[in-house]
Design a protein that fits this description.
By secondary structure, this protein is mostly helical. The protein contains 3 helices and no strands. It is flat, with a radius of gyration of 23 Å. It starts with 13 loop residues before the first helix and ends in an 11-residue tail after the last helix.
Length: 74
């Protein structure tokens, strides 16, 4: 029988979140992280058209009323 029981953190684990955040900051500040940040905005030519289409569709939807929302006055 284990002498210690794991704590119930409810919605999250603050120690795990802190470890993750620390590791993420170390990566971002590393040479490898800086290289990935520079590469991030690059889009392959075959992806460009699909990204533009997705952005156009999203903008059109944003202008219209959400079909999931039903107003009482209608």
């Amino acid at each position: 029988m284990a002498s210690e029981t794991p704590e119930n953190h409810g919605e999250g684990n603050p120690e795990a979140a802190e470890r993750f955040n620390d590791a993420e900051q170390q990566f971002v500040q590393s040479a490898q992280g800086q290289q990935k940040i520079k590469e991030g905005p690059k889009v392959r030519p075959d992806e460009q058209a699909e990204l533009e289409r997705a952005e156009r569709v999203t903008r059109e939807r944003a202008k219209a009323e959400d079909p999931q929302v039903r107003r009482k006055d209608r």
